Input
Amino acid sequence: MTPAIELRATRRAFGSVVALDSVSLTIAPGEFFALLGPSGSGKTTCLRLIAGFDQPDSGAILLDGADVTNTPPFARNVNTVFQDYALFPHMTVAENVAYGLRVRGIARAERARQAGDMLDLVRLGEFGARRPHQLSGGQRQRVALARALINRPQVLLLDEPLGALDLKLREEMQVELKGLQQRLGITFVFVTHDQGEALSMADRVAVFSQGRIEQLDTPRELYNRPQTAFVASFVGSANVVERAAAQKLTGQDRAFAIRPELIDLLAAGEPAADGYVQCAGEIVDVLYHGASSRLRVQVDERTTLAVARSESAGGGVQGFTTGSRVRLAWRPGHAVPLRD
Amino acid sequence: MAGRAEFSLQGRQAFYFALLLAPPLLWLGIVYLGSLLTLLLQSFYAIDEFTARIVPEFTLATYRQLLTQPAHIDIIVRTLLMAVAVTLTAAVIAFPVALYMARYAGPRTKALFYVGVMLPMWTSYLVKVYAWRLILARQGIASWGFEHLGLMGALDQALAVPVVGGPSLASSYIGMFIVFVYMWLPFMILPLAAALERVPASLLQASADLGARPGQTFRNVVLPLALPGLAAGSIFTFSLTLGDYIIPSVVGAPGYFIGMMVYQQQGTAGNLPLAAAFSVVPIVLIGLYLMLAKRLGAFDAL
Output
């Protein structure tokens, strides 16, 4: 099957800063794909190149098998939901949504009908006559979505689509976006710095760091099998144990990652389960989070491990106070070896 | 309620507030609006034809005189047409310049452009007007240039056009028009550039993203969002042209303009009421212009 999007060794530098360093990537039709990374990692540059707002210095971009590297944005069958929504302030909501049809010369009545349908799809049917500034953030975001979808693009690009929304609205929109993507069956590519968002919505995630893709995988693989220290700490907030410390703890000369909730916390004299890796340490601090608590335990002078302890399952953290000596243990299979 | 409490002023605070506000209010109220009202009032008096003294009684005689004498109507129409022509031309010339300054120029080029646009305003207005008279004179640089470019025929043809032509550029309406456009161009460029700079780049990208070609983006997004700047700039060029009396008296054909009429009526002719009535004309015209601009949606994007 022809990929919906293909990037071939795409490179883009701004002066001496390399924003995207020879990135190759294929995205299948109908996929919900996330570009995840901290700011400055190249994920937004990647999106802008796909949209056509920017051209790569070298490499090629293909949409549905056709080379569009030098095709201007208006000639690409791709639409974008902008981070600031970029709604036209001098047009009504309905005019905003119908804009893509208007520039294609569709008749006024037909435009109005389709814009109405689109607004119904995002549950804003009654807001067509308003101006964008009269809407809330969440409503504006849905208008931006309706506007981008009216041209029935092959690919919808979303730049930090939920970044400006508050937590509750963000969760609602996650569900809504996912549902919309499944109903329409078009390829969604979205940029985010929020790993939770990427994991919960995407079919596959490309984790960016310093202009390169660190790892490209399904959310489950990324979380359970991070390949690099960066992915382990950025995606799962896992503990990353450096090579030197790892050798002391496990005897193996390879860095590994271990997630806080997979570490058992034992009182100083308590025995660990058979075959578990063990070490001793001192509690640096204890943070209570309600459903769970999070402790940091210093196991040698350069390594501190975070340990999560569920309130319901393993009991609370009573008796574990800052400064007390404890033992940590984990199943060897839970430690994920990392690439250098 | 909490928000309102912050703004309610009491006692001492209110006193200081009033103290701070008094000078600007006095200035605006007395020096500015007060003198304008006196001027308006004057236009409702009339002059005694025999004694040439102002009769301080309410009458519409002066306005009747203003609006019934064909010579006066000529002056108003002439000034209005010039103001419209100057405004349209300035807008057409200023738009690409402002667009380049606001959207395409790098920081250094942009600074250079701003200085370039404002530099002429730092020179004396009179010097520039008289310089233009020399430039446009029969043996001036302009005709020298036309001659060496082999375009003397075109210049002669332009000057042969009835009404706007004349014996030389310096003594024709064409020359006057050129000087007006030159003088007021910065007043059009600056507000336009400011308006264009406020248009977020993402709006232009969104337009392109939705399939608009560059020309469509310009018509549908850039132009409507630049309208407030265009309106502000055109108010400058329009009102400055309506009120000016120096340019028409130094450069151009001998026909009178509103500003010259005001100058003459309040000076040599000593007809203060008629001068006042004439100066009300630009106020009314600009008021009508603003209403029209608002009707056309020029301020919708504000």
In short: The interface with chain A takes residues 200, 202-203, 205-213, 216, 220-221, 224-225, 297, 300-301 of chain B (CB under 8 Å). Strands of chain B lie at 46-47, 54-55.
